Amino acid sequence: MKILGYKRPDNKIGIRNYLLILPVTRGSHILASKIAENVTNCKTFILGDEDGRDSDDRNTISRVLIGLGLNPNVGAVLLVCNKKNAGYDELLPSYIESEIAKSGKKVYLLDIEEQNGFYQALGQGIRIARRMAREISDIQRTDVDFGKLTIGVKCGLSDATSGISGNPTVGYMLDALIDQGGTAFFSETTEVIGAEEIVAKRCRNDEVKQKFLECVYRTENEAKSTGEDIRTINPIPANIEAGITTLEEKSLGAIAKAGTRPINGVLRYAERPKESGLYFVDSWMSSTSLFIGYAAAGANMVIFQMGGGALPVDPPMPSVSTGLIAPILYTTGNPKTYKRAGDEIDFNCGTIIEKKETISQAGERLIQHIQKVASGMYTKMETWNYQDPIEVFLKGPKL
Amino acid sequence: MENLIVLSEADNVGNAIEDIEKNEVVSFSVNGQKHEFTAKERIPFGFKIAIKDIKKGEPIIKYHEIIGKASRDIDLGHLVHVHNVEGCRGRGDINN
After folding, report:
1. 3-state SS class at B86
2. Which of A26, A98, A324, B83 is most buried, most CB within 10 Å of its CB?
3. Residue B52 three-state SS
4. CA–CA separation, A33 vs A30, rounded Å?
């Protein structure tokens, strides 16, 4: 099974070919933004909340910046900073540059001090970014294996269809991806609570199992320590209005999107896996944060599987572009949701509960759809000229 | 046409795939066997209905797994939801 993708020097496969303009320190946010405004086909990312962070959070930020640069959907990277050798070790611009450069792709580090200030740096930055944009536009798509892809999944606005049609269809596709040597991420630690024993049985070995259960128990205790009965968080009122009764029911429905293959490992937020396979990512569930974490871990695209039974007509979607460089593809297993949100949702498998298709038929159709998107077709969200605010998952405390 | 999905033969609840009115016939298949009974109350699309009598304290089974316990007796044909089911996890006041 083939797609048309961009082969990178490190043999990773991209499905998009962006120039990424990344500010490494807060003072250079405006410079990165102003360069990006003027140059075609680039993405930039402003991390608004990076000061006063402890070492754990600084390492997370470092993983996000390096991971985004390494993501194969990025053809070249322009890093922007105030001083390339100033700052914490893990956030030194020269360190971020050297880590991204290991991929063999082109990286340029624009240092405002070296450029004699902001105004010179802006002009020079635009010049360099335009050159880089043109250079990467000459990289051609070639025939590559579907099994080279990395896909992250999340479900949202769960209803009874999530566990019956939508999530099992995404799970079918993920099984096929893993069987062909691909890589997949699933997460949402809070939503696994209730079904953790069932998920734990799928871990590759005891070490992975223990790591997984530790994540679940820690998250459950964190919820309890805030005085929240986790049942009042999950299922959320919208789930209950749509027919989901208990946390266990929601969890079992939610994990159906991760398919049935063994869990190869547990990853921190924005941690890149060392080999292919299915991974559980220990993360905050929100799509404002999860998708950029997946992208930094190497995801080519993310799938947002919606129940959506309670959605109004023509609803805006919760996330348009929070994957930044990894497009979001929306699916639903609820035919009513698709009827109401057909201009936003890419793939409808509500056909299953209408008894027009089986889960495996819908799953094959989803694979074909993903082949098209991986080969260059826009997802519906990609047709918006809109950048969502993005929040990196930092744990605090802010110091 | 069938109006209920039951995911495994061990399950004691099914999900309505259309709005089912009170006294309407409910039909579903599991393992190739067709079943029918009468809804005792309205079951909206996506909600669960008891396909067996379930006694207070007995498990509610879906996906071949326990998704909660009956907090009161639930008779065949009745809505199964938060008013008659308790989850078993994530509550300090309930031990597994």
Report:
1. strand
2. A324
3. coil
4. 5
Q: Which residues of A touch B87 (CB under 8 A)?
A: 194, 231, 245-248
B45/A309 Cβ within 8 A: yes
Q: How far is CA A173 from CA A360, A362, B64, in A?
A: 9, 9, 22
Q: Which residues in chain B have their CB less than 8 angstroms from residue A252's CB?
A: 62-63, 65, 67
Whether A158 contacts A239, CB under 8 Å: yes
Closest Cβ opposite residue A248 in set B81, B82, B87: B87
- Same-domain status, A346 and A364: yes
According to DSSP, the residues that pair with A20 across neighbouring strands are: A43, A77
Q: Enumerate the residues of chain B whose CB falls inside 8 A of the CB of residue A336.
A: 45
User: For residue range A51-79, what is the model confidence (pLDDT) as tens digits?
Assistant: 889 999 999 999 999 999 999 999 999 99
Given an 8 Å threshold on Cβ–Cβ distance, is A240 in contact with B82?
Answer: yes
A210 and A331, same domain (yes or no): yes
Q: Residue B12 and residue B49: Cα distance in Å, rounded?
A: 9
Q: How does pLDDT run across A81-101, given as a tens digit for each residue?
A: 999 988 899 999 999 999 999
Q: At residue A369, what are phi and psi to the nearest 5 degrees? A: -65, -40
DSSP labels for A13-45? EESS-EEEEEESSGGGHHHHHHHHHTSTTEEE-
Same domain, A101 and A161: no
For chain B, what is the radius of gyration of the CA atoms? 13
Q: Are A274 and A259 in contact (CB under 8 A)?
A: no
Same domain, A228 and A132: no
CA–CA separation, A381 and A328 (whole Å): 7
Domain ranges, residue A101 = 18-138
| DSSP-derived secondary structure letter, A93 | H
Write down all domains in chain B, each with its CATH number in brackets.
Answer: 4-86 (2.30.130.110)
Q: The whole model's pTM is what?
A: 0.89
A293-334 pLDDT, tens digit per residue, is 999 999 999 999 999 877 899 999 999 999 999 999 999 999
In this structure, the answer to whether residues A62 and A130 fall within a common structural domain is yes
A202 neighbourhood in chain B, CB within 8 Å: none
Collapsing DSSP to helix, strand or coil, A283 comes out as coil
The ipTM of this complex is 0.92
